[in-house]
Amino acid sequence: MKPGFQPSLLAARKRLQETGRLTIVALGSSATAGSGASAEDKSYPAVLQAELRGRLPGAEVTVLNKGVGGQSAYDMLLRMQADVIDEKPAIVIWQTVINDAIRDIGEEKLAKILNKGIGKARAAGIDMILMDLPWLPREGRYPHYDDYRAVLRKTAQEQGISLFPRYAMMKGWSNSHQFTSEELVGMDGLHLVDAGYRCLALRLADGIVAGIGPVRIEAAGGAKPIN
User: Fold this and answer.
1) Domains of the chain by range and CATH?
2) Strand order in 91-95's β-sheet?
3) What is the pTM of this model?
4) Which of 10, 11, 197, 221 suits a disulfide with 44, CB 3.0-4.6 Å?
């Protein structure tokens, strides 16, 4: 991953400063649910929660895993109210598009769905981080893969939404040989395993902490500095 990932998290910063709480919803498909991980606490949302609790002492950090395997962007749009907005998070991390690319649902249709989802989160005052598609060792099996990645990137840019560069990060891991392919992607050729999920969560934590910046919690008994 390029070192400059720093999402704009103004709502999260304000919420954390005023309440001492940071709630994040991880909305996604199987990569969010943790397919390929050896246990529930090895999924990226679980590792992210543990990491942020360590980095934001004094804050009440919760990361809710709302990953459902096999879902499309439209399936997640239908869950946006109940699984995201009703949970009243400060941040939603939306991992999507992989199943839409595999099924080739249509680029224009995908863009409309993404824009609707972004609009719903924005109207509710929730900061959003979109997650780029994964780098896959055999992505050539999906002839429109790069086209759908381009739709995701363009939508994020047009909407001013931070895009977590998962593809570049994973490709960098592979090229550097710091991981074997078995440590990155499981036997199905699609899903991360424990080492990959952990690294993904650590880089997300880096970005979230940087994006929030130093804050002082306005709690009873005086403000407590964080960072």
Assistant:
1) 10-215 (3.40.50.1110)
2) 60-67, 21-28, 91-95, 127-131, 162-164
3) 0.89
4) 197
